Amino acid sequence: MDLILDLLATVSRWSRSNLSEISLALVGCVLVLFGAQFKSWVEGRLGGFAGALRVPAMALVCLVGSGLALVYATPWVIKGLSQFNNYSLAPVLLVVLVLIGVVADRN
Q1: Helical pair 19-45 and 2-17, crossing angle rounded to 10 deg
Q2: Which domain holds residue 90?
Q3: What is the pLDDT along the chain (107 residues), one digit of tens a residue?
Q4: Closest C-alpha among 100, 107, 35 to residue 65
């Protein structure tokens, strides 16, 4: 049992030192997974525009939306993940990665 707790603490300490990169990767994965739904929602909103206006507007909205999500959501994820202690951070990250994999498999 001590071996498992030591392993969890070691992996959690390593994860904590790389939390900014892990959080950025998680936000990026969520953007990739739900990007198609966001794109179709934007297309529905911009459907009445002419083609010459719709394409640049679509690119601008997706570019700004994804950029803002990466810049502003990543610190929130860092704050949320930093609340876990050294025995629970690694299992939480594992569960989150499994959930992302399940959602990716369904899409």
Answers
A1: 60
A2: 2-106
A3: 788 888 888 888 899 999 999 999 999 999 999 888 888 888 888 777 777 888 888 888 888 888 998 999 999 999 999 999 988 999 999 999 999 999 999 88
A4: 35
- Residue/partner pairs of 61-70 with CB below 8 Å, 24 or more apart: 62/35, 62/38, 65/38, 66/31, 66/35, 69/27, 69/31, 70/24, 70/27, 70/28, 70/31
Residue 82 structure tokens: 């930093």
Count: domains in the chain: 1
Residue type, 24: L
- What distance, in Å, lies between the first and last C-alpha atoms of the chain? 38
